[in-house]
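User: I'm putting together a small comparison set for a docking exercise, and I want a reference complex before I start. The sequence is below, and the ligand is L-homoserine. Could you produce the 3D structure with the ligand included, as structure tokens?
Assistant: Of course. I'll restate your input first, then give the structure tokens for the complex.
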Amino acid sequence: MINIAVMGFGTVGAGVADVFEMNGALIAQRLGEPVYVKYILDVREFPDSPFAGRVVHDFDVILNDPAVEIVVETIGGAKVAYDYTKRALAAGKHVVTSNKELVATKGCELLQLAKEKNVNYLFEAAVGGGIPVLRPMQQCLAANEIEEVYGILNGTTNFILSRMVRAGVTFEAALKEAQSLGYAEQDPTADVEGQDACRKICILADLAFGKELPPEHVPTCGISGVTLRDVEIVEQAGWRVKLLGRALRTAGGKVCAYVAPHLVAAEHPFSAVEDVFNAIMVRGNAVGEVMFYGPGAGKLPTASAVAADVLDAAAHREKRKNIGWSAWRAEDAGTPEELELRGYFRVKDPLETVEARFPGSEILASGGEVAFITPKMPLRRLEDAAAALQLCAKMCVLG
Ligand code: HSE
């Protein structure tokens, strides 16, 4: 029997315990031995839970129990979770997590510690919720040089944008719906302002390119500035608004990433990715483009990925999985300003001014305000030229 402990009995932690109850027999058959949730660590009591008798409040109970081989960290954040993860790894326990903030900010260090202690630190659930993407990217695409990874990486914002498009509700009303359905993080700022997507694109970039890309080096813009008016203008012209994280190589071969709302063409598969679903496109130099799609958030989908990592850690107890990336170096990092992009802008200036500054633009709406898509040009030039206009809205264009 494999004994595990679940730290943090919130939505995902409770989902993990549920999955091992619900599918216990099947998991035991597949693994060759049962998995038992011996402890649940939380500051709260859960008197009505079937796991009430296993709740502990002291991390040392888990740390000092040699029977616990695998620890699931679903606490979130990068403070207590960081401390407990370090101590668990240092004690020779495998750690599995859904904590994208911790992996994006401290993953390099924690993976190095896991290597020194010959244990696994696995985090499939940190990107794309229930979608298998990190493991397939590392294993099934291992023979490729990855050229680009981009995706709809945040379920909450995708839900909000879907509601704006389909129901014509405002951003604020759609956010309230997302909160009432439990999709948004406790503080929705991380979802809405793109930080959650930023952490996820950093993890994807770390694995895809083998070099750490810290979130503070990734320009990030969320969807709080996306208005119903822009959504309607672009829809009529055959585009859909999606919040994308992108990581790719610049012309000079350096890796860069950014997060921003994008216009996605109606015929692009991402335009059909609705609600809390996520999609990740990986472009490899042998395989071409491969898309991963599925539920990007939610209790059981995320727990499905965490539980699978527990099984993988158990199967690799003797010979750990070799996962890691090199520490960040400024000289390896490119800047998105070097990328060539098309931009969408809505401005108060007259059409003649727009046409003079951005010749060859596609005009989506005019009269009072002008909404337009520019030709492709270096992002720096795009931003500089747009800064001289009376800007109401701006977005990137995919492709
Ligand atoms: N708040 C996150 C989202 C949860 O909406 O995608 C999954 O990481």
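Residues 129, 154-156, 183, 185, 191, 196, 296-297 surround L-homoserine (CB under 6 Å). The longest strand covers residues 239-249.
User: Thanks, that's exactly what I needed.
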